[in-house]
Amino acid sequence: MNHFRNQVILITGASSGIGKALACALAPQAPKLVLVARDRSRLQEVALACENLGASALVIPTDVTDPHACSAMIQQVVTHYSRIDVLVNNAGMSMWSTVEDAHDVELYQRVMAVNFFGSVYCTKSALPFLKATQGRIVAISSVASFTGLPAHSAYCASKHAMNGFFESLRIELAGTGVTVTIVAPDFVQSEIHERSIGPHGQPFGRILDGHSRFLPAEKCADMIIKGMTLRKRLVFTSWRGQWGRWMKLMSPQMIDWIARKGMADADRP
Asked: pTM here?
């Protein structure tokens, strides 16, 4: 497959997890990758790995919570490559806390700033260039965007917001040639849980006990690439996500039970 040969593909949150796996999985197709995250040294490691696999890679350290930084980053991409073909909004963070235990509502703002507004800022700035190439927008959301999860109200809210934004944008872009693919991963082997914040804003600081049972980031990346290639509207990475979307309409109480059990199982050896 060489659907993305020489295409300019911008990936936020590219220094680890799904973003890193996606960059490395795309690299053999020889795209022009733009790797975005805050940590320059980790981005450079990913860039080297991708270049060894056949891609060219441009590293742009950026804090996606800063709208001016996002705009400057997009302008740097266009100055360097003259185009953008694919934007993957992948940068994200999570929070483990019940609503009652959350020490400060600012923690909710922090999660929304990365997951939702970071995606909005990058997409808004890149949109004219994506329209010029009839490009692709990919939003890495979550199965949590379709329901609630205990101790994850901030994360779920941010992913629900992402879905609303990108579903609306898809309709607005009808006839332009630009497509929107929303990806809803289930639990994935990545650092997002370990790097989550707790009720006082402190790092969660440990890998979940069920981590080894989660979907490997590399397999998740393969599913994303397939969805990108086909310009699919929605990509699930598990049967639970696909099945749960419809079951919620028929038996919402069942989905509440499954959500509680799923979170308990995720932290069970």
From this structure: 0.91
Count of helix runs (H) and strand runs (E) in the chain: 9, 9
Question: In the prediction, which pLDDT does 242 show?
Answer: 73
Q: What is the DSSP letter of 216?
A: E
Measured between alpha carbons, how far is 87 from 71 in angstroms, rounded to an integer? 13
Rounded-to-integer distance, Cα 205 and Cα 130, Å = 38
108 catalytic per annotation: no
Tell me how many degrees the CA angle 256-259-262 measures, rounded to the nearest 5. Answer: 150
pLDDT in tens, 157-188: 999 999 999 999 999 999 999 999 999 998 78
- HEC states along 51-105? HHCCCEEEEEECCCCCHHHHHHHHHHHHHHHCCCCEEEECCCCCECECCCCCCCC
Q: Which of 81, 108, 121, 155 is catalytic?
A: 155
